[in-house]
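One chain is below:
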Amino acid sequence: MTGAIIGDIAGSRFEFNNHKSKDFELFTEECRVTDDSIMTLAVAKAIMETGKRVKPGGDGYESGYYSLLEKMAVKYMQEIGRRYPNCGYGGMFINWVFSDDPRPYNSFGNGAAMRVSPAGFAARKENEARRLSKAVTGVTHNHEEGIKGAEAVAVAIFMARCGFAKGEIREKIERNYYPLDFTIDEIRDSYRFDETCQGTVPQAIVAFLESNSFEDAIRNAISLGGDSDTLAAVTGSIAEAYYGVPKELEEKALSYLDDELFSIYSEWTEFMNDYR
């Protein structure tokens, strides 16, 4: 989850002022926390609260766990989201956040993928990564492309965590989710803002696959332009699972979180330590 937060903050100042180069300062006073980090933390909170009430059985989570997780995802995305009304939500999502009767709205926007990283880190098995991602995604983005985008990211995170090689991750994504038949250099000049999973997730995954370090992955993603904070959040979440996160980058990014968001982050860190 740290990688998603770093990518979001580093990419925030370029979302509407794209920088088509890997040469830039990662953190400046213009950087900020956006909806990508806030909703990622909300999903983490939902997973933690669900885990306090329903424990996994011998064969993994029971069906009651996922039903409760859906309810908790709605609860915490709304509760936390309402405290940050000006952080960059899309129009349909902000209506959902403030709705008294929140229902999924058939979206395949890239918001499905930018917030899903806690599912990839919490999963013990690949199938759990898929089911966790669907539970926290389908409450808003229930279009098949929205579900697919989130699942692809969660599976890539799970595989990276488990020591799979980049070639194996690429093969899995190409076989089950998206063609990755391009390079970052090939598409950089023509790539433009795309708010869909199918126009963001493959590019974010390739930005990770072509990287040689965590920071290089973030720079690859931001250099594409487009929805810079979301691209970098998705890439950063996978890169964290594969490389880990340099301590100095983690500390700098966390300095942008207010007390409430930092509290959720700290709780997640403790939760994952105990969870393992």
